[in-house]
């Protein structure tokens, strides 16, 4: 894209700047529209599983319901508690929303179709996703209210617990792919099993890692059955209790952007990204970004399915799963995968 703007007579610096801004907008604007649509899809899936109709009034088939909700919160008054730390209280949702968008910079939508094709893309995603907890902690502390503060403590413990196991799971993927570059990780999955199946998920050593990564994704995004940070029966609404208007909407958008990010990571790291499921020539006729989108939508359906059907964990169960099950198992698989690769690929 930089070369295109240079051909219009721009200097390299200006061409790079304009190309980068255009790339950011090409990701951010469709993502925001996609968030509005998946909120609608989420509610429709829950309704179908509960034998209800879901949103069906605003627009054809209720498609404009999310936009009506957005207009409603935009017109509401932003109420700031008198005892709250005003600056941090207002910055917290901005942090959550911004961090949710930043990680998309290294997600490849097709071969070479990525905003920042950096060699440490996976480390960047891990670092950015770790920052998400700060928005929650800042909201809980700045609200100067008991329930949001309890929620912030829960969130910090929960996200740190599952990020540890996610880190070990990603080490297994990096060991097998031999790179941190997200594009190259996808390419390493081409014909990975029997020369037919595209995806690390078909590898017997990496399939358990995908199952753990999927469950950890639910915990990391605070989706049911791991939504202990906003459990209505215990914490009213958790760290969001004191928020209203667009500040609340920013948390809502950030939460769903994070859900889509985790769906994209499941797709990219284990299901071949933009590659078709099978390494058969005629399947490559379908554009890569279409395969990527279909896989992301499949994972979002799984997220909604789990939320609609699985009861909430107790907090002690949540911690036990993260520290006593996922951590030792993922660490054991790091040893297993590295040992297997040393014996087979490097013939040590």
From TrEMBL:
Report the sequence similarity comment from the record.
Belongs to the complex I subunit 1 family.
Record-given protein name? NADH-quinone oxidoreductase subunit H
Check the record and name the PANTHER family matching this protein.
NADH DEHYDROGENASE SUBUNIT 1 (PTHR11432), NADH-UBIQUINONE OXIDOREDUCTASE CHAIN 1 (PTHR11432:SF3)
Q: Which HAMAP family match?
A: NDH1_NuoH
Alphabetically, the GO molecular function entries are: NADH dehydrogenase activity; oxidoreductase activity, acting on NAD(P)H, quinone or similar compound as acceptor; quinone binding
Which Enzyme Commission number(s) are listed? Answer: 7.1.1.-
Query: What is the species listed in this Swiss-Prot or TrEMBL entry?
Result: Novosphingobium malaysiense
Q: Which PROSITE patterns match?
A: COMPLEX1_ND1_2
* Key words of the record: Cell membrane, Membrane, NAD, Oxidoreductase, Quinone, Translocase, Transmembrane, Transmembrane helix, Ubiquinone
**Subcellular location(s) of the protein:** Cell membrane; Membrane
- State what this protein does: NDH-1 shuttles electrons from NADH, via FMN and iron-sulfur (Fe-S) centers, to quinones in the respiratory chain. The immediate electron acceptor for the enzyme in this species is believed to be ubiquinone. Couples the redox reaction to proton translocation (for every two electrons transferred, four hydrogen ions are translocated across the cytoplasmic membrane), and thus conserves the redox energy in a proton gradient. This subunit may bind ubiquinone.
Give, as one word, the top-level EC class: translocase
Q: How does it sit in the membrane?
A: Multi-pass membrane protein
Report the record's Gene Ontology biological process terms: aerobic respiration
Segments spanning the bilayer are 14-41, 88-109, 121-141, 162-180, 192-215, 256-276, 282-305, 325-343
Q: How does this chain assemble?
A: NDH-1 is composed of 14 different subunits. Subunits NuoA, H, J, K, L, M, N constitute the membrane sector of the complex.
Q: Which residues form the signal peptide?
A: none
One Gene Ontology cellular component annotation held by this UniProt entry:
plasma membrane
Catalytic activity, reaction form: a quinone + NADH + 5 H(+)(in) = a quinol + NAD(+) + 4 H(+)(out)
């Amino acid at each position: 894209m930089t070369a295109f703007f240079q051909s219009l007579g721009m200097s390299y610096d200006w061409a790079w700047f304009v190309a980068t801004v255009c790339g950011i907008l090409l990701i951010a604007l469709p993502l925001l529209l996609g968030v509005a649509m998946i909120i609608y899809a989420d509610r429709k899936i829950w309704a179908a599983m509960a034998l209800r109709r879901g949103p069906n009034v605003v627009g054809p088939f209720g498609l404009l319901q999310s936009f009506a909700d957005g207009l409603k919160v935009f017109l509401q008054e932003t109420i700031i508690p008198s005892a709250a730390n005003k600056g941090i209280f207002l910055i917290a949702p901005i942090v959550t929303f911004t961090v949710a968008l930043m990680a998309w910079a290294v997600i490849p939508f097709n071969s070479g179709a990525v905003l920042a094709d950096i060699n440490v893309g996976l480390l960047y995603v891990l670092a950015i996703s770790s920052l998400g907890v700060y928005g929650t902690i800042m909201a809980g502390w700045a609200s100067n209210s008991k329930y949001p503060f309890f929620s912030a403590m829960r969130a910090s413990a929960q996200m740190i617990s599952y990020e540890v196991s996610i880190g070990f799971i990603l080490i297994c993927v990096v060991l097998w792919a031999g790179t941190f570059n997200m594009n190259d990780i996808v390419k390493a999955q081409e014909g990975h099993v029997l020369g037919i199946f595209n995806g690390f998920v078909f590898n017997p050593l990496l399939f358990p890692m995908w199952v753990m990564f999927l469950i950890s994704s639910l915990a990391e995004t605070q989706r049911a059955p791991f939504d202990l940070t906003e459990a209505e029966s215990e914490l009213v609404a958790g760290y969001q209790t004191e928020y209203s208007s667009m500040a609340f909407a920013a948390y809502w958008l950030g939460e769903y952007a994070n859900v889509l990010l985790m769906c994209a990571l499941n797709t990219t790291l284990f299901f071949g990204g933009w590659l078709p499921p099978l390494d058969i020539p005629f399947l490559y006729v379908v554009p890569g970004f279409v395969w990527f989108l279909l896989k992301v939508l499949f994972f979002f359906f799984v997220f909604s399915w789990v939320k609609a059907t699985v009861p909430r964990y107790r907090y002690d169960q949540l911690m036990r799963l993260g520290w006593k099950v996922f951590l030792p198992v993922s660490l054991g698989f790091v040893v297993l995968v590295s040992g297997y690769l040393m014996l087979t690929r490097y013939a040590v």
